[in-house]
Design brief:
With 567 residues, this protein is mainly beta. Helix content is 6%, strand content 35%. A 5-stranded mixed beta sheet has the order 24-25-26-27-31, with no helix packed on it. β24 and β25 form a beta hairpin. The chain starts with 5 loop residues before the first strand and ends with a strand. The relative contact order is 0.11.
């Protein structure tokens, strides 16, 4: 059930033999399970359970990672059930009826439940049932533990920012003829990764106009090499794709014009991945702006951050991060760099902090440590942690290379970041006790200077750290607590040009080469070499990282968006 995106809550304890017509008393004259004093109210069995379920529904529906229209209750409230997958409908218990929120209407402090044969109206004051709210909070904790099942793949590198889908089980093998649920042609070009929430998949793209410019435009940045010329004006668009059938539900143009700079010949003008929750889609096109849309594709707000000037004119690509009500964007370039936070609902800038950094393409992640949400960003000058609420620097650690591209990962209070350009470097910082500049202190748990990642970000899966050397076919498998290799390194025959970051699910590792397809390996946490499981080729070039939700794996190529699933 968890793999299909469900969370189930039983209200009450069936093994306790509770008779709600004659509730058990505990000291103080209160009933054991449902709160109000026994001598104050008469509890009708289904009324009490209805109230408990409604309270749980109210709490859950307010969470950003839960879709309210997918919360339901089984008949007679034998079990409350939360459906979070649009692809599957399954129930537990002996009764197969599901009551969704349309069966409830609220009248003042009362709740009327549909199906008159089974329901009664209750008029007890809400405060007498405060203990029932515990059920909602217990379920919230359960939801948080298995967040990726509930929220899909809402952002770059997935719900935990580590490339893993803990409860998913995507296919091992595919081709153009096998395990392709759908294949949708996409307009324009974009290397942004797909993100998935509910029944929609979101991607961004830059679509060239029909008529070429009279003369190509070059970036003109110092040291420019391997640059693509600007030959057209572009429309910058956000697309929503139906997760079930693959049809394009809507396409919204958020900006248009001639870019002031191009990018590397292997890059795109839509390389930053969007981020989404149940009501908002945040798309970042760098110099073309930051945009927020609703799930119908209507633009809610936009923010102009200026023009970015990247090293060698090689383009823009850092993705935004969304946590709660706050969107954070990193803006590292060759001029005045900064990091900024925006209100998700209004676009109001909450704070902006200058950064003594040159160009980086790393995307920020959010880590909760000791109750504080920290924004972690890798860059040449330092790996830094910012307080999400205030923007103040909590700690920083130097030691990475120039041209930082890979995003950091975090596990068990440790932040790990790597880079590879003019030098190779990977560092692990213990968050507990970290404050100020921790470079060279005992807060740095380990460091390594070989086979570190350049373009693909590291993968954290089952307490194991995976990363590729530069962007080539050499895989390291490391203990994240010590930095020591667990066997390897492992040469990946046939892979040599890897921009997509590796992902993991179902005890397997998925590594996608730009031209040669996706290699699937078994995951082992010991020293044994991984087992080769499959090499899957599609008719497209793929630079974007995969997204995994449930039994589906989404790959975005230069021409198509694929949904891969067992037939």
């Amino acid at each position: 059930m968890a793999k299909r995106g469900f969370v189930t809550l039983s209200i009450g304890k069936p093994d306790a033999g509770v008779n709600l017509d004659a509730p058990k008393k505990i000291p103080g004259g209160r009933t054991k399970y449902y709160g109000p004093a026994h001598n104050e109210v008469h509890l009708q069995p289904l009324s009490a359970l209805a109230y408990a379920g409604a309270n749980a529904h109210t709490v859950l529906a307010q969470r950003p990672d839960v879709f309210p229209d997918r919360i339901g209750f089984s008949r007679r409230f034998k079990q409350a059930q939360i459906q979070c997958s649009p692809q599957h409908v399954e129930f537990t218990g002996s009764r197969q009826h599901l009551y969704t929120p349309r069966f409830f209407s609220r009248i003042g402090g009362s709740i009327i439940a549909g199906d008159a044969a089974d329901w009664t109206m209750i008029k007890h004051r809400r405060e007498k049932f405060t203990t029932i709210l515990t059920a909602g909070f217990l379920l919230m904790a359960w939801l948080a533990r298995g967040a990726e099942s509930n929220v899909g793949w809402p952002n770059w590198r997935g719900p935990s920012y580590n490339g893993a889908a803990e409860n998913a089980d995507p296919p091992v093998e595919w081709s153009e003829e096998k395990n392709v649920r759908w294949k949708t042609p996409l307009p324009g070009l974009g290397h942004s990764s797909p993100v998935v929430t509910g029944n929609l998949v979101f991607v961004t793209a830059a679509i060239p106009g029909k008529e070429p410019l009279s003369s190509p435009k070059r970036s003109g940045r110092p040291g420019a090499h391997d640059n693509a010329e600007i030959t057209h004006s572009f429309r910058f668009v956000v697309l929503a794709v139906d997760r079930s059938e693959g049809g394009i539900v809507w396409e919204t143009t958020v900006d248009s014009g001639i870019p002031h700079e191009g990018g590397h010949v292997t890059a795109s003008l839509a390389s930053a991945s969007p981020v989404a929750d149940k009501n908002h889609i945040i798309a970042f096109f760098g110099s073309r702006g930051l945009y927020c849309l609703n799930r119908e594709g209507i633009l809610l707000w936009k923010a102009d951050l200026g023009k970015m000037h990247t090293k060698h004119g090689h383009g823009e690509g850092s993705s935004p991060v969304l946590h709660g009500e706050t969107v954070v964007v990193n803006w590292d370039h060759e001029e005045e760099s900064f990091i900024a936070a925006f209100d998700k609902s209004t676009g109001r800038e909450k704070w902006r902090k200058p950064r003594n950094e040159k160009t980086s393409w790393s995307s920020p992640i959010v880590v909760i440590h000791e109750g504080t949400a920290q924004v972690i960003v890798s860059a040449t000058g330092a790996l830094r942690s910012y307080d999400l609420e205030s923007g103040e620097v909590i700690w920083e650690c130097g030691g990475l290379s120039d041209n930082v591209v890979a995003s950091p990962v975090s596990t068990k209070g440790i932040v790990i970041a790597g880079s590879s350009y003019d030098k190779r470097s990977m560092i692990a910082v213990k968050m507990e006790g970290a404050a100020g500049d921790v470079t060279g202190t005992s807060q740095v748990l380990w460091r390594r200077i070989n086979r570190t990642p350049y373009v693909p970000s590291p993968l954290l899966y089952d307490n194991t750290l995976y990363f590729l050397a530069h962007y080539q076919g050499v895989l390291s498998r490391v203990d994240p607590s010590t930095g020591k290799d667990r066997g390897g390194p492992f040469r990946l025959d046939g892979l040599s040009d890897i921009y997509a970051s590796p992902v993991a699910a179902g005890g397997r590792i998925y590594i996608t080469d730009r031209q040669r397809g996706t290699l699937v390996l078994s995951h082992t946490s010991g020293d044994d070499p991984p087992e080769f499981l499959a090499m899957n080729q599609l008719d497209d070039s793929i630079s974007a990282s995969a997204a995994i939700v449930g039994r589906e794996l989404f790959l975005r190529g230069e021409q198509f968006l694929y949904c891969l699933a067992e037939e």
